[in-house]
UniProtKB/TrEMBL annotation:
Species for this entry: Pseudidiomarina maritima
Gene that encodes the chain: tolQ
Higher taxonomy: Bacteria, Pseudomonadati, Pseudomonadota, Gammaproteobacteria, Alteromonadales
Protein name: Tol-Pal system protein TolQ
Alphabetical UniProt keywords: Cell cycle, Cell division, Cell inner membrane, Cell membrane, Membrane, Transmembrane, Transmembrane helix
Classification via PANTHER family: PROTEIN TOLQ, TOL-PAL SYSTEM PROTEIN TOLQ
Domain of life assignment: Bacteria
NCBIfam families: tolQ
Subcellular location, record wording: Cell inner membrane; Cell membrane
Amino acid sequence: MQAELSITALILEASVVVQLVMLLLLAFSVVGWMMIFQRRNVLKAASAEALAFEDRFWSGVDLARLFQEVTAKAQNAGGMEKLFHAGFKEFARLRNNPAVGQQQMLEASYRAMRVVHSREVDNMEQNLSWLATIGSISPYVGLFGTVWGIMNAFIGLGAVQQATLAMVAPGIAEALIATAMGLFAAIPAVIAYNRYTYQVEKIDNQYLNFMDELLAILQRQTAQSAAKAGAPA
């Protein structure tokens, strides 16, 4: 009896519909774990890069020199490095144009950073919607398999005159396996989605704060340059 009620035997002897449900939930679980590890690596790298670049930025290095360093590694630059590169590049391009005012330079620099910012946040949020989908629908898919299995078990009971627990137990057990698989696929996906959403928001705030800080520095540099230009010789 124990061999007959083993999990492997129950899965192999389940109805075709329940087996398809289990196969679908297994695919959900595999895809979910792949996305969990992939997003973990992406967000970990983005956070580490942001902290490292902020340390370099506030170390007192000349911004023009820092711009050259980031330009040299353009293809391998991180999110915050790309923000700085886009903003400072636009600022440097317009700085020597007498027809462009200070406010216009700062606005152009901010717009350039906003484009990069939007692209970087989209990259960090990639596949998070799939984790949310897997976490939300897997329990219902498992429940469908459970309902189908229990329904078949009771239909089988209708064909006999005397029902026993031994007759209905395998059908109910295989049905409950579908529910367990649904939860196994959903729980990690939901936990990862909530955690990664928080991490994306945290990194996003770092980006936005850096953009404001860079604009403040550029504004001070512009004001100092204007003051020197207007000073009597």
